[in-house]
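Researcher: Next entry: Guanine nucleotide-binding protein G(I) subunit alpha (Schistosoma japonicum).
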Amino acid sequence: MGCLLSVDEKKAFERSKRIEASLKSDGEKLAKIAKLLLLGAGESGKSTILKQLKIIHQSSYTKEECLLYKPVVYSNTVQSMIAIIRAMSHLYIKFENECRIVSLPSCQKLGLLVEYCA
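Model: Predicted structure:
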């Protein structure tokens, strides 16, 4: 019954210290991680914000991700152009460059455009 630790107690004490140091280190690492909860209605831009943050703070996209997103970007671009042309029709806004109207019939044939009032 002395003040000294037995060999087993000493090993347990050192193991406990290593575990505590590891927990402290892990806690410090986790404290540096920013967590973000994005809330919003559908199509409000939550995914867009997440993708932009990835581009800014990580090493951008892999080639596979680029190939995956390419059709999505193309589709969004075409849909936005169609929405603008339809809005121009409803608001009776004319094309600034009239030669652009030439491509409208081909868009109509493809079913991309329902109507356009010039």
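Model: Note for the record: The chain has a mean pLDDT of 81.
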